[in-house]
Amino acid sequence: MERVVLVTGASGGVGLALCRRLLGEDGRIHLCLACRNAQKAEATRDLVLQEYPAAQVSTVEVDLGNLASVLRAAQELRCRRLLHMLTTAEGVMTQTDRLNGDGLQEVFTTNLFGHFILIRQLESLLCGNEKPSRLIWTSSSNARESAFSLSDYQHAKGQESYSSSKYATDLTSVVLNRKFNKQGLYSSVVCPGLVMSNMTFKILPVFLWVLLMPIMFLIRFFAKTYTLTPYNGAEAHVWLFKQKPEYLDPLVKYHSCTSGLGKNFVEPRKLDVDEETAEKFYQKLLELEGQTLEKYGDLLD
Ligand SMILES: NC(=O)C1=CN([C@@H]2O[C@H](COP(=O)(O)OP(=O)(O)OC[C@H]3O[C@@H](n4cnc5c(N)ncnc54)[C@H](OP(=O)(O)O)[C@@H]3O)[C@@H](O)[C@H]2O)C=CC1
Ligand SMILES: CC(C)CCC[C@@H](C)[C@H]1CC[C@H]2C3=C(CC[C@]12C)[C@@]1(C)CCC(=O)C[C@@H]1CC3
């Protein structure tokens, strides 16, 4: 049976590189590109098919920062009936987090809660299959406990919404394993390292990064997480794709690394999470999910 792999944030950066690399690893997979914009999704599909003309590639439109869009996408995916792996590679990092149309913090929703709802809505496809299914969350080395607080888990009050959302991602993955491993669903978190992408181009302009490139190649001899290209950044995702999920440690983050001479490898590092906090946070996510489903009852089957 073909394996169906859904990649969010597939239109650029690590997500697009991951799509290409997965097809290079296994041309028999069915790749589903999840993008927030239908035109971009089609353009990405064309790009991937140019490289792998025989590949099975479909698209689904989903804005992960918009819960109605997430529920509609889940409905559509449920109709397609199969899903074996979901990997997140979308993300927003901004100094000015704000409320979205659902009245939730944008960074929290896009980086975590939209995916949480998507996964919960796709539970029937992901759980109880003959072979284990898997989730791969793109987290970050920037996930910091100090940025996260249970009382303000959407990070409405602080200035570190990105770090908070990534820490929340790590917590969620730990609990998802506890709840769903028995049903054959396994979750892992990865960090792509420092990658030149639209995200980093918002921190410094492209020309500055280009000027800094020789320095960064030198730094890479000492800092292995300077992966620099999206291709290298997707190393940990691709490595996980090839592992048996039931043998992975749920309390580990898998870091994409690149040596000074450009060789890619994966480094597992223990997650800095308190399991009790993780469980409490998960209960809060369930509460928020309840409110969301009540609000959007018309989008449920
Ligand atoms: N770059 C880096 O150094 C690091 C990145 N990461 C993480 O890696 C992941 C990928 O980042 P990277 O490839 O660098 O970033 P990019 O900005 O290049 O790519 C982000 C992708 O997410 C999509 N996206 C953004 N917002 C939404 C949304 N609301 N709904 C659906 N899709 C959305 C973008 O789509 P569109 O094309 O429409 O904008 C794009 O395809 C992120 O989770 C990021 O946090 C972690 C550590 C370091
Ligand atoms: C090459 C250096 C001489 C100059 C670069 C300095 C900084 C702009 C970068 C150093 C470490 C980077 C980093 C990120 C952004 C850019 C830096 C601060 C991230 C925060 C990007 C998003 C993440 O998820 C984690 C990254 C950690 C490292």
UniProtKB/TrEMBL annotation:
Cell compartment(s), UniProt: Endoplasmic reticulum membrane
Pfam family, one: adh_short
Membrane topology note: Single-pass membrane protein
Keywords per UniProt: Endoplasmic reticulum, Glycoprotein, Lipid biosynthesis, Lipid metabolism, Membrane, NAD, NADP, Oxidoreductase, Steroid biosynthesis, Transmembrane, Transmembrane helix
Gene3D superfamilies (UniProt xref): NAD(P)-binding Rossmann-like Domain (3.40.50.720)
One Gene Ontology biological process: estrogen biosynthetic process
Superkingdom classification of source: Eukaryota
GO molecular function: 3-beta-hydroxysteroid 3-dehydrogenase (NADP+) activity; 5-alpha-androstane-3-beta,17-beta-diol dehydrogenase (NADP+) activity; estradiol 17-beta-dehydrogenase [NAD(P)+] activity
Top EC category: oxidoreductase
Entry GO CC: endoplasmic reticulum membrane
Family from the record: Belongs to the short-chain dehydrogenases/reductases (SDR) family. ERG27 subfamily.
Subunit structure as annotated in this protein's UniProt entry: Binds to the short form of prolactin receptor.
Name of this chain's protein: 3-keto-steroid reductase/17-beta-hydroxysteroid dehydrogenase 7
Phylogenetic placement of the source organism: Eukaryota, Metazoa, Chordata, Craniata, Vertebrata
